[in-house]
Amino acid sequence: MSPSTPDALVRGYLRRLRAELAPLPADRRQEVLDQIAEHIAVRRAEPDGQSLAEVRAMLDRLGDPATLGADARERFGVPPRRRGPLETLVLLCCGLGPFLVLVPAVALPFGPVRPWHVVPVAVAALLWLSRFWPVRDKLAATAMLLGCAAVFVLLDLVGFRDTGLGSLALLLVALFVPFGAATCYLAIRTSRLGGAAAPAGLGTR
After folding, report:
1. What are the residues facing 82 on neighbouring strands?
2. What is the pLDDT of residues 56-103, one digit of tens each?
3. What whole-number distance in Å separates Cα of residue 78 and Cα of residue 153?
4. What is the pLDDT of residues 16-47, one digit of tens each?
5. ∠145-135-171 over CA atoms, to 5°?
6. Three-state SS string across 71-87, please?
7. Distance CA 51, CA 126 (A)
8. What is the pLDDT of residues 132-144, one digit of tens each?
9. Distance of alpha carbon 47 from alpha carbon 36, whole angstroms
10. Which positions ≥6 away from 26 have C-beta within 8 Å?
11. How would DSSP label each residue in the chain?
């Protein structure tokens, strides 16, 4: 939901900026935040910095928090984030998630705990082991992954049973939504965070 007041818009902007500045030492991070917050306060004190539209335009001119964070990391000599083997594994598991569910569901017998209960939780656990993505990104991607639980709650309510290939194909289509959303989101965030693959032997842990 979009912020409905200028204050909420500014708080959201500074919150995103703080997340982007997380790799900086605490004193440098606070220095940049104070500079940006002061600039925003000065601009909002001017006659053309009062309305929601004017504040949004001012923040757009100031720059995207991801860009400001990258500039600050470069200015203070903080190495760019690099995607390691764990992050690559998370992206692969997200992209292949529906198949990771479908193949064992067809090949193996299961009890009350089904693959679509386990796989999203396992991928989310791998995601939280990473130090590459900020907490905000982890929360967003986890919500997308666990969104498939809501799908299966609804299917249970309507009496769905995974008794044949047709029903499993329906599950595959349904799973593409949460897994696909998480994959796209993490891929975009990886690109914005400067997530080039780490050199051989290097990770992000």
Report:
1. 196
2. 999 999 999 988 988 898 888 887 667 789 999 999 999 998 888 777
3. 45
4. 899 888 888 889 999 999 999 999 999 888 88
5. 5
6. HHHHHCCCCCCEECHHH
7. 43
8. 888 888 999 999 9
9. 19
10. none
11. ---SSHHHHHHHHHHHHHHHTTTS-HHHHHHHHHHHHHHHHHHHTSTTS-SHHHHHHHHHHH--HHHHHHHHHHHTTPPPPEE-HHHHHHHHHHHHHHHHHHHHHHHS---SS-HHHHHHHHHHHHHHH-SSS-HHHHHHHHHHHHHHHHHHHHHHHTT----SHHHHHHHHHHHHHHHHHHHHHHHHHHHHTT-EEPPTT----
Tokens 């929601």 belong to residue: 52
> What is the amino acid identity at position 186?
L
Q: Which residues contact 205 (CB under 8 A, 6 or more apart)?
A: 84, 86, 129, 131
Residue 90 structure tokens: 């998370």
Using CA atoms, how far apart are residues 168 and 126, in angstroms rounded to an integer?
Answer: 25
